[in-house]
Amino acid sequence: MAFFERTVRELNDTFRLGGRSGALVMEFLRTVTSEKSGSLGGFLVRLRTAGLGDTVDSWIGQGENEPITAARLESALGSDFISRMASKVGMAPSAVAPALAFLAPKVIDKLTPNGQVATSLPPDVSALLTGVAATTASRSSAEASGKSPWRRLRALLGLFGERRES
Fold first, then answer.
1. 149-161, pLDDT tens digit by residue?
2. Class of residue 40 by CB neighbours under 10 A (exposed 0-12, middle 13-18, buried 19+)
3. Are the C-beta atoms of residues 129 and 30 closer than 8 Å to each other?
């Protein structure tokens, strides 16, 4: 959870997205992990096919993530991808492209623990995407008291707010 909270804050602090950072993180996660779009492996193949193999490898491997420019990411994914993402979160494509260039290395790194493209999502990512967290006594009591980190994160990501559907 700390990873996503920190990422949303960094994204908002860097790009001043007016509270849409959480929605963008969630939409990007949904998109790159969607079975419909080939899951994470398919997304990575798409980037590699576009000539970003070394860059993608740095995001998966140990060490520093190689940064990517908005123009390079948009060239690899296509302007339609950026426009769809922008539409889903209610932002201009010109604001989404640099935010995704910032976000992509961080998210891919998170989704590839130990430098491997896993066959399943890390539990915290899966729980976040499905809205279902592991049922534990401590979680139940934390929610009952209103101090659950899940509740804070979901509020931070704007999951209880207005969400555009495509």
1. 555 555 555 543 4
2. buried
3. yes
**How many whole angstroms separate alpha carbon 13 and alpha carbon 40?**
27
> Please, where are the H alpha helices in 16-118?
21-33, 39-47, 53-60, 70-77, 79-89, 93-111
CA separation for the pair 58, 66 (Å, rounded): 6
HSE value, Cβ hemisphere, 13 Å, CA-based, for 147: 4
Is pTM beyond 0.85 here? no
Q: pLDDT tens-digit profile of 43-76?
A: 999 999 999 999 999 999 788 999 999 999 999 9
Q: Extract the tokens encoding 160.
A: 């209880």
DSSP state of 146: T
Locate tokens 């623990």: which residue? 113
